Amino acid sequence: MRTLGVDLAAATKKTAAAVLAWDAGTARLEHLALDVHDREIVELFGSSSMTGIDCPVGWPDAFLPFLAGHLNLDAGPVLDHDGIEGRRLLAYRDTDRFVTGHTGLIPLSVSADRLAHPAMRCAVIQARIAAEYGPQARDGSGRLAEVYPAASLKLWGILARGYKGRGAPEAERLGVILEHLKAAAPWLDLAGHEDRLAASDDLFDAVIASLTARAAAIGQTLRAPETHAAAALTEGWIHVPSGGLASLGGS
Predict the structure, then answer these.
(1) Rounded-to-10 torsion of CA 223, 228, 229, 234
(2) DSSP per residue, 10-57
(3) Please, what is the average pLDDT of the chain?
(4) Residue 250: pLDDT over 60
(5) Bridge partner residues of 16 (DSSP)
(6) Which residues fall within 8 angstroms of residue 143, CB to CB, at 6 or more apart?
(7) Segment 58-82 mean pLDDT
(8) 0.90 cut: is pTM over it?
(9) What is the percent of the chain with per-residue pLDDT over 90, rounded to a whole number?
């Protein structure tokens, strides 16, 4: 099995990809790249068993009717979301609320925060993948799953806060987190890329996304409960681990 992890940004220079090759209880970092273009992501998807992408794959179901109502001067769907509670339904998806309830972490809003631009790029990538390899269900039941590295690390018992950024304190924290990951997953062969990973939170998150893709592929992530299943197909579903890091090994 090969799993691809993508830390997707609006700009290619901040987009990272990591491919792990799994065999006989071990995982080896086979490919690690920064400044990744859409074409490379699609090609790597094609040669991977499962892909985990750190970016929303859809928008809240309420968002489009709200925008359409505003565009068409139809007050009904706009007034349906009057007030802060109504706006929360426009900003956050079912999966965002589920992840918050399960982990205590609050994902960024795809419609009202910095994720909007990467999500537009992600929609184009999904369309390119669909054209070449067939449509991928947004609930992660195919070969593409939305992931959230911060939630994966927390559920795997790795304290990972304050490592985003390019300053010395962030780099020091990232180095410590990487050491914790290596200790928790001795079967993980980083193939000599430790220095690159310690110097780039984008590359590091791509590796965590690839590990989470493995968890999704072997059924060790939380799937959408029946009450969320319909929304997961349209809005997307964040796959967070349901087991420990040790359980990811195997052929």
Answers:
(1) -110
(2) SSGGG-EEEEEEEETTEEEEEEEEES--HHHHHHHHHT-SEEEEES-S
(3) 93
(4) no
(5) 7, 34
(6) 45, 48, 49, 50, 51, 133, 136
(7) 87
(8) yes
(9) 77
